[in-house]
Every structure is written in structure tokens, then in C-alpha cells.
User: Fold these one by one.
Assistant:
Number 1:
Amino acid sequence: MNRKFLYLFFTLCFSIAFSQSDKPNIIWLVCEDQSVDFFPMYGDQTVDLPNLESLADDSIIYDNMHATTPVCAPARSAIITGMYPTTLGTHNMRTYNEGRDTNQPSLGIPSYSPKFPNYILPFTKYLRDQGYYCTNNNKQDYNFKISNQAWDQTCRYCSGKQKENIHWRNRGKDQPFFAVFNFQITHEAQIWSQAKSKIYVDENKIKVPPYFPDNPIIRRDMAINYSNLIRMDKEVGKLIQELKNKGLYENSYIFFYSDHGGPFPRHKRAIYESGTKVPFMIKLPNSKQAGTRDDRLLSFVDLAPTILDIAGLDIPEYIQGKSILDKKIEERKYLISASDRFDEHVDRIRSIQTKKYKLIVNFDTSKPHALPVSYREKMPMMRKMNEMYFSGELDSIQQLWFQTPKKELEFYDLQEDPYEINNLIDAPVHNYKSLVNRFRKALEKWIYQTNDLGRISEKEI
């Protein structure tokens, strides 16, 4: 009897150990506040990013990944749950102000964690239940109070030895790991924080998009951002080299992406492609499918189910995204993004798009897209654009972002007009009425099916 018991015991232990060691390791490299427009793998040759470019050579590059919201905390709530922020109630920036009792006193809004069903969990909880060691270095900002069960190691904002110690090296022997590394050097705030640091690019060779005026202040801020990307690339290189030194690079899944679009005005907090479309690539084990590109419409709600799929776990039915790597799943026809409150300013906007066309619905036309967010006013570019707008120095394209009242509907051909400056609603030649109506009905259906809470006052939520 004892022999039989021991046999079963050791067989079970061996099975558990084998199943854990057989699970793949997954690493996320996450930069902040960056659009596709700044990266060599998307056609911009302003700077060399040798470590990211090398990773890109080993990866599948995705051309249509979008943040659910063009700002960090709501977008991160989608990443960690696989749910739309507008369904969770995490769509406002921000709701849960970690470490603070106050939030937006001018609006009478305290720091609060939105209430949603307790069966909705951070996807890392499912990984940990199956033996994964999960680390998050070093930003949370999920817009709700996250469970202590989400991570083996994490911190809100930390530095030095505490930050360095949040690492896969602390896992058990042969234990699979999921490790997130956030690079804050590319954050919006670093535009003014790095103003006196070394510039690594020739400011005169930078391509300024048409919605920005071309002057030394705009070029300087753009040069700082490119320089920050070079700084980030060096950090990426150290992590990649560590993986290689430990023999972990080849067999691991490695993701690289940004948490939403660029750090500038009309990028961050803007529902245009410059605010929602992000760089995204996945290195598969043994660099399978390396060098290929994928143009499917993807959303941040797809990240959680993708990781669960990689780990061989069942994807909960409540998750609204789909695994990116499951090619049996039908490609989405429409992709939706949303924006609501940004700090002290409320402006509900929804967008729906295909690969070719995009409809933007502005629910409050009395406000410009250029909301006077006080935090953004710290950026020299923003102050200069405000000055030029009020003195009448911006051209007709650059004025569009400041236009008051703004149009209720905006409709763009993304292939012919990637900067989204020619609103086809006003087109005299082509009649897009039937197409716009089709997009609008599809958006209304999505709002109903996903229970979009943007229609409700935040105080009621």
C-alpha cells in the first residue's frame, strides 16, 4: 500500500514539474507614449534603434495594433483584463489615483476604484494559478485597485535595487515566467525632464508632420523624443543580452509595444491614429515567422487572451478580446477606440474604423480636440502651439485640432490621408453618406453590446 502511494505521489510531482517546465516563458517590453511614426521598422529612418531593429528581424511586425484609449491608465486596464475600459468603468483618466485620496476635486471626483464583477481578474492570476512566476517592473496604473494575487513581484513606481530585484531570476527552478519591463524614459514628461540632456539627432533632419508648425521649438521637442528612444533602445539591449546569456532568448515569446500613441499634442489623448496606433511585434520561439508582417485590426483587449493562449490556458468567456496567435478566429471587421475624461476635462468621443476608413463621433462639439489639460502645458511644444493659435500664426491644417466648435462627425480615408486632416464629411465630390451610416450603426451596436458606460455621468458610476 505504501509503495503504491509513493508511486502515485512521485508520478504526480513529476507530472507537475514537467508541465511547468514545458510552458514557454513570456517577456513584455513596454515603452510609453510612442506612435509607430518614430520607429525604423515602420519606415522612419530618423534614428537607428539597433536592439529593437534586431528584435524586429526575429519577430512578426503588426501594422494595425491600437490602444483602446489614447492615454495610459484606461489603456492599461484593458491590457490587464482583456476588457474594454468603457465596459469596466475604467475609461476616465484617471479614476483610481494610486497612493492619493484626491483625484479631480474641481469636478468633485475622488480617487475611486470602479466596481465590476469580481470574476473579472487580472490575466496574470490565471498564469500564477498554473505555476507561472509573474513580475511587473515597475509601473501598474491600471485605473482600478488591483488584487495582490496579480503578481509575484511588482511596484507602482520604484527605482534602484528595489526595481532591479523585480525580475524573473527570483523564480523557482525550472519555473516558467511572465515578465513585464516598462520603459518610462519615453513618457510624455521626459520631453521636459530631458530638456537639458544630450540630443542624439540632427534637429534639422527631422520630418515634422503637417499638423505641427515647423519651427525650432517643435523640432527640439521631437529631437528630445528621438533621443529618449535611443536611451530606451540601450535598456532593451541589456535585457535582450541577459536573456541570451541565460539561454532564454531563443525559446521565449518576446513582445514589444507602446501603451498608446505619441507624447505630443494631438498624439497622447487624441483619438487619431497618432494617439491610438502603436508599434507592436512578437518574437515567437526559435524566431518562427521572423520578418513577416500582419495587418489585421488588433486591440489591447487582445493581449490578455493571447498570453493565456500561449500558456495553454482556457480563455474566460467574459474576455472581450481574441488571441492574436489563433489564426482560426475570424478577423474583426471594425475596430473601436474611445476617449472620455482626461484629468480635469470631459470630452466623450468614439471612433470606429476598418483598414481603410475611420469614423469619429464627437458627442460634445462645443469643445476643441485641443483640451487645455494643465499637465500637457508643461511641454514647450504645447505652449508654442497655443501662442501661435491665439496670434493667428497656424495654417488651416494646424488649426483643425483647435477648431471650436468641432464637427460632430469626422470621416477619413486612412490609406489616402494617414494624418487624418481631410474630413470627407465635407467632401463636395464623393458621397460617403451610406458608408458613414453603416459605420455609425455598427458603432451604436458596439456601444449597446459592450454596455459602454461613457453615456453615464461619472458620478453615477
Number 2:
Amino acid sequence: MVLWTRLAPEPLAEDGSGGMRGRGVVPVRWEVAEDERFSERVAHGVSNATPELGHSVHVEVDTLRPDREYFYRFRVGGEISPVGRTRTAPAAGANLDRLAFAFVSCQNYPAGYYTAHRHLADEDLRAVVHLGDYIYEGGATGSLGRAHAPAREVVSLADYRIRHAQYRTDPDLQRSHAAFPWIVTWDDHEVENNYADEISQHDDVAPGDFLVRRAAAYQAYYEHLPLRRSSVPKGPDMRIHRRLRFGRLAEFTVLDGRQYRSDQVGRNSPEAQDPDRSMLGAEQERWLLDGLGASTARWNILAQQTVMARADRDPGQGLRLPMDNWNGYEPARQRLFDGVVERCVENLVVITGDAHCSMAADLKRDFAEPDSRTVGAEFLGTSISSGGDGADMDRRGEQWLAANPHMKFYNQRRGYVRCTVDRDGYRADYRVVPYVTRPGAPVSTLAGFVVENGRPGVQEA
């Protein structure tokens, strides 16, 4: 379990220091208790907040009992933090009866209020999974009084620290973090829109120059999220792909679809079918398939960034595919699906963000053949705020449902996906809010889908 905080009395200080300029190492006391009043303290210690990591604190506590709820807080001098709640994972071999979690993505600060996070905090969950676009790098101002700080595209370490700190000032996001342990991965906007490995989306930026920016972005990301020491960046490199086990019931494989990928190519480019192209990089791809093949969990959940199912937008005989997600990396997707079949991987569920819409789909070994074998299910979750209020249907949704028989559902409202897993099935409930451009929206369940144990693919609940 990782406990996180950052010392930032002035979160938006222009130098990115959070108001800690000139401060050296600061000892931070931390406490864990079984009750919110801390009458039964079970662990405590001191962790040093250093300027090298933005005076952030990442405490790894490994002395707690498995599968238990705990409360935690921090102290510095006469200051005391609000109380957070967390829960340890069950033991690796535990026979867990039920697992409830939610997944979210894409929380553009100027685009809308984080009402979905406020409702999320009231759910009965063991964890929250964030699938990327935790921040946005641009200089948007919007029209809601939530303009980005600094008021420009961020490129330096100070810039990224200020942007992360601004997002962290949102009370609904704070409430969501304080309610549950979080599992996080990134997409592109934590650095730059549509970047690929060392390649900027701007042709005039040299890879070496872009890696300087990536190093700054990765460090600020680490400083502001509950990640282990194994993820401390080494310059422009940072390992974020990992596995998390919830007893014998579920194993989460958290992927990194940005840091190692091949560059995007044009829709009609013959390079799109180059078998050497990769979404994950060769090492992560091997690690993924080896892990899936060795898994003994009932449910194998891939937590990743971009749409995996074929997403054709041409209802006719042609193909109009997006090139930044798995549709632009078809050989890599085929290797994954073939590897899943060859290793007899069962109960594969993919959870996805990025697209600012909700969708549920069967994952077919050959999307060109509707009767092809179904190898898994994909649940695409909408954004927290990106894209504004949204709508029940848009042109993309009409095209997707007309052109892709493996897609079962589409919606473009904002919200999150609540998932409930037991030995018999996996259920995904799409929780949506009707608006984000003003506060106070209610939440409702728009649709629910299930995957039955041993029967790959999506069914209406």
C-alpha cells in the first residue's frame, strides 16, 4: 500500500515549488489506524520530503493485515492533513468472493466540473483505476472560471508541477482520492497530445529535445500520484506497467501504451501493416503475454489507455480507422489476440479510456469475420469532464454502431464505470451525469453489461 502527500502551502507558486522554495529536507510523520479517530493506531513513521521530488511523500506500508480498511494522515510541525481511507489487497491465495472497483479517465480541468468524482467517492469500492489523461498539457481557459495554470502549454518541470497541483486543488478530486486506493497509468496528455515514445506530435521538435520535456512530465506525474519507488523516473524513463493481484479472483495488468510505442502512421500508409510496429514495445509485449499465460486468477483485467476493438467509422465497404489507438497498430493487436488464444487465457476483460465516450464490445480474433472467435470483452469508459457535457449519441456513435457488429453500446455522456466481479461474472455499470459545465449534476446508471465466467463477450445485464 502506498500513502501519498505533497507539501505545497502555495500550490500554484510560479516557480513550481508549491511555496517550498529554499526549504530542504522536511520530515513528515505519517500514521495509519483502524478507525477514523485514530484511537487504534497500527503503524506510524517518518518519511522525508525532499526538494528533488517536489517535497512529495510516497510511503510504502507493508506491515498491515491483508484485505482490511485503514485510515491514514500526515503531520508536519503543527499542521495535520485531512484523513484518508484506504484498503489493503487480499492475500495472493485468498478466495475473494467479490471485488468492486471503478475506472475513470480524461479529466480536462477547464472543460467541466468533477461532479463524477464527487459521486464516485460515495460508491462502495475497493479501488479506483485511472486510465490516463489525469492532466491536460494545453493552455486552455474554457468559459467556466477554471482556466489552466500556468496560462500556456506546459513544457518544464515547474510548469508540470503547477498544472498537477492545480488539478489536485479540486475538492471533488481530493474527495475521490481520499476515499479509495488508486491504481494509475498515463496516456498522452500527461506529456503531450499523441506523442509516441521519443517522438513529439510536432515535426520540428527533435527527439532529444522532446525527451527533456518527457523527463519533466514524468517526474511531475510521479510526484503527484501514489506510485511505488519502483516507478521513480530515471530521466525520461519511468516504469509504470505492473501487475496487481486481488486474491484468486482477479489480476490487473496495468499497461503503458505511450512510452514504448512505434510512431503513428497515416490511415492509408502501407507501414500500418508492418509486423515490427508495436503499441507496447517488444519487452512489455512479452511481459504481458507471459503474465497472461501464467495467470491463475479467475478474471484477467487489462487496464490500458486506448480503444482496442476495431472502431471503423465507414458503414459501407471501406475502412475508416483511427490511427492513434490499437486500430493503428493492427499487427500488435493481432499478436496479442493470437497469444491469448495460444495460451488458453480465459475471462479476459479490457478496460479503456481516452475516447471521451462509453462503449462495450466483443473482442474478435478476426474483426473482418463477425463469426470469428471472441477472445475477450472491452469496456470503454467515458471522460470525467473532457469534451464538456456530451450527449447520448453523436455522429461517431452512429457510425461505430453501424459499421462494427461487435460493438453493443455507445453513449457520450460523462461519468465513470463501476465494476463488480465475482466467480460467476463480471458486471460493468455505466454511471453518468447529465452535465459538467455547471456543478451539482445527479448521477444515474445508464446501462449495465455482464461477462459470464467461461463465456467471453458482452451481454446486457
